[in-house]
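User: Can you recover a sequence for this backbone? Please restate the input before giving your answer.

Assistant: Of course. Working from this structure:
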């Protein structure tokens, strides 16, 4: 076994989980299986393979910042369900 029940209790305490004894046994078996799988992955030869954050190449999709004219108050408030005054959105009260 890669992990024992005492280790699982420690991890559960760190995660603020209160596990029943039966749940503790199940989690011990499951976490041991996970660690066994990770050990199996560690056996793979990864020499010459560059680490990646994504499985496929990614490119930044953000556009450059540029100053442009705003859409204006009338257009911005045109589809608003509620308007307060001449230039504000009105929203329902959420905090009493």
């Amino acid at each position: 076994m890669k992990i024992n029940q005492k280790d699982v209790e420690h991890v559960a305490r760190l995660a603020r989980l209160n596990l029943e004894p039966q749940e503790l046994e199940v989690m011990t078996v499951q976490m041991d299986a996970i660690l066994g799988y990770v050990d199996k992955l560690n056996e793979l030869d990864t020499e010459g393979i560059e680490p990646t954050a994504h499985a496929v190449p990614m490119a930044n999709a953000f556009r450059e910042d540029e100053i442009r004219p705003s859409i204006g108050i009338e257009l911005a408030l045109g589809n608003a369900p509620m308007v307060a005054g001449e230039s504000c959105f009105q929203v329902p009260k959420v905090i009493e």
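That completes the design. Residues 33 and 55 are 25 Å apart (CA to CA).
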